[in-house]
Design a protein that fits this description.
Layout: H1 4-9, H2 13-16, H3 21-31, E1 36-40, E2 53-57, H4 61-65, E3 73-74, E4 88-94, H5 103-113, E5 114-123, H6 125-128, H7 133-136, H8 138-147, H9 151-158, E6 161-164, E7 167-168, H10 189-192, H11 196-200, H12 203-219, H13 221-226, E8 234-235, E9 239-245
Parallel strand pairs: 1-2, 1-4, 2-3, 4-5
Antiparallel strand pairs: 5-9, 6-9, 7-8
Length: 251
């Protein structure tokens, strides 16, 4: 079993994608005190709750090798979870659903194995389309519109509700929107290497966007257009937390 994307971007992931405590609190609250949790697409183990029995599911050997978590990990995919029904109080999935081959099948599997609730952190490209970074790298937006499930469809499939998750200006988790207030961070190849949008972007598109961004930073154009963002502590970039109660059929 392989996961080509994360086998490519996984190197150094654990150092640039450290869990942010404010996001961790939102996820923990959404889990509602679950005593057993399945973390689907678990990666290096970010946001796995302390105090609960956690089992991780991750298809990438590169990511598994970097796990900094005591939770046992099973190498499997979201679409075929190797657990009996109702094995966990809750199932969670953090910024992983866009990598699944069939997100609907993955959600159905999460519903099958959970008794209480699902918690899914995703990105909605529509409100996210206004993020200034995507003016420099429009190919990422085009690609992600095809990778992320439409939010209304995800909410309908889970039967849950979605909640905005603003990104703190000093977010420690280096996903695509983390440095919205620090444009020079996106010039760092080490940081971009842990963002699948950049990894999958054709080289010429990445190079063109980097050249334009670098020039705008140097000339002060970025500051003139977006400098007011420095007054904000957090910004809604389209990240959404979907929380759903699991409806169980009668035994």
């Amino acid at each position: 079993m392989t996961s080509p994307i994360y086998d490519r971007i996984g190197r150094g992931y654990a150092t640039t994608r450290r869990p942010d405590p404010r996001i961790a609190r939102r996820i923990l609250d959404a889990l509602g005190g679950a005593r057993s949790v399945l973390n689907v697409g678990a990666g290096a183990g970010s946001y796995e709750p302390d105090g609960a029995r956690v089992i991780a599911v991750e298809p990438s050997g590169e990511m598994i090798a970097q796990r900094d978590s005591a939770a046992p990990v099973v190498r499997a995919t979201a679409e075929a979870l190797p657990f009996a029904g109702r094995s966990f109080d809750a199932a969670m999935a953090v910024l992983t659903i866009h990598h699944w081959g069939d997100w609907r099948a993955g959600v159905t599997e999460m519903q099958r194995v959970a008794t209480s609730r699902l918690v899914i952190l995703t990105w909605d490209p529509e409100p996210g389309a206004g993020f200034w970074l995507l003016d420099y790298f429009p190919g990422i937006l085009e690609m992600d519109r095809g990778r992320f499930p439409p939010l209304d469809q995800l909410v309908a499939a889970t039967g849950g509700r979605s909640y905005a998750l603003p990104v703190p200006h000093d977010c420690s988790d280096g996903f695509l929107g983390a440095w919205w207030r620090e444009p020079a961070a996106y010039l760092d190849a080490r940081l971009r290497a842990a963002m699948s949008g950049f990894v999958l972007l054709p080289d010429h598109e990445e190079e063109d966007g980097l050249a334009r961004l670098d020039a705008d930073i140097s000339s002060g154009a970025w500051e003139r257009r977006h400098g007011a963002l420095r007054e904000h502590e957090a910004l809604d970039l389209g990240y959404r937390l979907v929380v759903a109660e699991v409806a169980q059929s009668p035994a």
